[in-house]
Design brief:
Layout: E1 5-16, E2 19-30, E3 34-38, H1 45-53, E4 60-65, E5 68-69, E6 80-83, H2 95-105, E7 107-110, E8 113-116, H3 119-132, H4 148-160, E9 166-170, H5 178-195, E10 198-203, H6 206-212, E11 215-220, E12 223-228, H7 230-235, H8 240-245, E13 250-258, E14 261-264, E15 267-270, E16 280-285, E17 290-292, E18 300-309, E19 314-320, E20 323-329, E21 338-343, E22 348-352, E23 357-365, E24 370-373, E25 376-379, E26 390-391, E27 397-398, E28 404-405, E29 411-417, E30 421-424, E31 432-441, E32 446-451, E33 457-462, E34 471-476, E35 481-485
Parallel strand pairs: 3-10, 3-11, 6-9, 9-10
Antiparallel strand pairs: 1-2, 1-4, 4-5, 7-8, 11-12, 13-14, 13-16, 14-15, 16-22, 17-21, 18-19, 18-21, 19-20, 23-24, 23-29, 24-25, 26-27, 27-28, 29-35, 30-34, 31-32, 31-34, 32-33
Amino acid sequence: MKEKVIIELKNVSKHFGQTYAVEDFSLRVKKGEFVTFLGPSGCGKTTTLRMIAGFELPTGGEILLNGEDIAQLPPYERPVNTVFQKYALFPHMDVYDNIAFGLKLKKIEDGGKMRHLTKEEIDKKVKNALKIVDLEDYDYRDISTLSGGQQQRIAIARAIVNEPEILLLDEPLGALDLKMRKDMQLELKAMHKKLGITFIYVTHDQEEALTLSDTVVVMKDGMIQQVGSPEDIYNEPNNAFVANFIGESNIYSGTYKGDMKVRFINHTFDCVDEFPKNEKVDIVIRPEDVHIKENEEGMAKGKIVSKIFKGIHYEYILMVGRNELVVVDTRSFDVGKTYMFDIEPDGIHIMKKELTANIYNDAYIDKQNRVVISETPFPCDITALVQGSSLDDEGYVVGPDGTKYDFTDADVVATIGLDAIEILDDDESGIVRGEIVSIIYKGDHYQLTIRTPEDEDFVLDTEYTYDENDLVGLNVKPEDIKLKLKGEAKQYAKK
């Protein structure tokens, strides 16, 4: 049996001046579904909810309720109710009157005429709403005497007493402490099942979204990044943002080597995904999918530099070369020791990379203030690591307050734009040399991947034609290498 779509948003947009809060948002919500809008602050999730409620009018697109466009209807003409984060209860009314407030204003059709609800009808509905939220004996309690969790349930009761087709909840548990949030999550889930109506929920709490929802809509910058079940969102993220936002993740840049093999953190691993050979990809590894070995057998090795007890497991940080790998394990291992580890092929999730720049996460600064990328030192602007700084005669970075910094061996992230790399026909005349392993025509230019003898890739855009396997040289101007320090500058301050 085909499930009924109760509400559909088609290419909905909302902008304030030149700023888009929501852009090209399309979603179908089934009747009785629990849907959660999940994303960081400012991603547009509350604005979308407010457009469904009628508190904001969309700049463009349609909002269809049971097939009819309600985008321009005022809130009171929509069969939806909203529960806000701050509850918005009336402090001068008791529990009963807070819940009954909307019913006393409501009119229903009776024999072709409109009339108000009787006192008996209101009383029956209020008591039923209180029963649903497990507060039957609180009818005449003063609002100020209730706990935060109880006030939250009163706000929900006030919303459901009007029997809406859709209940909208805007971060309703945000003001509660952690334990109460956990308890209310379970109560909301049970309430949804009991009522059988559609819930559309807004939160920035990933665990909350995974716990409550039938469907999760992950948002960023006003746009949908992924829609799916909690299991799909967690296990099969569409991109690095979703993977990083939903739970703890290790995310790396890698290269698909072909034949179900992918290279990242300077090792080649078996995988289950297929991509074009030599394509640059993003790699996601969940901490629970890394298995530390107690013997000498494993795919790679790393040194444990951090160990935190989390109650039911330990969280470790392994340094694999200059890359951090977060691992969770119920077993206790020693900090400072080196261990082998395995990652099963199905624990390596590979995603298409929307490449906008070369990013080298395991770069570092040498004694000559050069950035070393895959064993090759590149001249760079070391003063970029401290705003407003300069170099003194000894080569130390001097901050605007006079503090001297020695960044020798400092770990940095180096970023080089695709159009910032100069390609040279003479492979001996550049800072680094390599072989062209991939050529992609992008309509008005070519995107080349050049692999160095150290197995590092440099991707660049060029209008000139080359052949695969050509040997070329590469140059990069110091000012075109953007540096970001791992950690804080103060740890490199000279005493």
